[in-house]
Amino acid sequence: MTFLHWTREQMDAAGRENQMLFTLNDGNYDTLEFWPGLPEQTTAAVRTARNRCLYELPPADAHGNRKYGDKAPAPHEWLKKRKGFQYQDIMVRGRQRRIRYRVEGPFVRDGLPDIPLFLLVVGGGKRPRGSRRKRYQPCFFLVSAVMIDGEWSLPLPINVLLAWLWQRWELEVAHRQMKSGLGLGEKQCWNDKATVATVQWAVWIYALMLLSGYRAWGNNCGEKPPGLWRTMPGRWSFNTLWRAFRIEMWHQSDFRATWTWSRDNWLENEPLWDALFNSVLASARI
User: Fold this and answer.
1) DSSP E strand boundaries for 53-94
2) In angstroms, how far is CA 82 from the centroid of its own chain?
3) Is 101 helix (H, G, I), strand (E, B) or coil?
4) Residue range(s) defining the domain that contains residue 260
5) Are 214 and 264 within one domain?
6) Residue 114 within any structural domain of the chain
7) What is the band of 285 on the pLDDT scale with cuts at 50, 70, 90?
8) Does residue 242 sit in the same domain as residue 205?
9) Which of 55-59, 128-132, 276-280 has the lowest mean pLDDT?
10) Burial per residue of 232-254, b for 16 or more beta-carbon CB atoms within 10 angstroms, e otherwise
11) Residue 286 confidence (pLDDT)
12) Does 279 score more than 70 pLDDT?
């Protein structure tokens, strides 16, 4: 929340006080303290629980002390209603993905009667052929409602909103890869300064590699790995990116993995470590 306020202050200082700031957050931010704490001209989309308690807005003729309308269905109950779902194609890594969704509301949360929120239900679906899991699990989001021409509306067009929500999931995948592949947070440190510096250094290297890969290959995943049995990966990962860099660097004489010196005893060459060194360094993991 501190970072949001700082970003809002920087935008206002730059003369962009009328520009809306939109933030994406995971379920840990779906609290009663988060929504009232948003700065001015700031909206959010937050993943919410499938059983979140929501209420309709009070009717226009309701008594002045009434804060809630009728109780709305829980987010997961909207999945049982077939009518009302729509489809939207969004661009993901150079490919069109069809998203099944529905928007309901505006509602209010129990404990936040003065903050209208839309419920965005993203229905599950079949994964592309070749995926490990067969289906996408449905997910639910609460989105800030903004008043436009006397009506409550989404802060962004639905196609833009869905595209950014997909990118939020991509960030989660990248963070998991940073920990499992790059070793973020696993380096040994013996003082407070080193603990912070090593994380910053690792994140900087990861970002620099991603930027270099995107400038070189765009949404494509580099060159096809050697071997007829290997296929092009469907998406970037740290391992595939690191392997693509190795292939490119080995084309340069100064960056060969090892020397290509050959002995006279050809029958004994294969088990030698230096003969197998290229294969060892060509592995996906370091």
Assistant:
1) 54-56, 86-92
2) 28
3) strand
4) 192-281
5) yes
6) yes
7) very low
8) yes
9) 276-280
10) ebeebbbbbbbbbbbebeeeeee
11) 44
12) no
Residue 113 located in a structural domain:
yes
The tokens for 185 are: 């947070």
Total number of residues shown for the chain: 286
Residue corresponding to tokens 């007829």: 228
Last-in-domain residue among 101, 132, 166: 166
In a domain, residue 220? The reply is yes
Instruction: Tell me the three-class secondary structure of the chain, residue by residue.
Output: CHHHHHHHHHHHHCCCCCCCEEEEECHHHCCCCCCCCCCCCEEEEEECCCCCCEEECCCCCCCCCCCCCCECCCHHHHHHCCCCCEEEEEEECCEEEEEEEEEEEEEEECCEEEEEEEEEEECCEECCCCCCCCEECCEEEEEECEEECCEEECCCCHHHHHHHHHHHHHHHHHHHHHHHCCCCCCCCCCCHHHHHHHHHHHHHHHHHHHHHHHHHHCCCCCCCCCCCCCCCCCCCCHHHHHHHHHHHHHCCHHHCCCCCCCCCCHHHCCCCHHHHHHHHHCCCCC
Rounded to two decimals, the pTM is 0.71
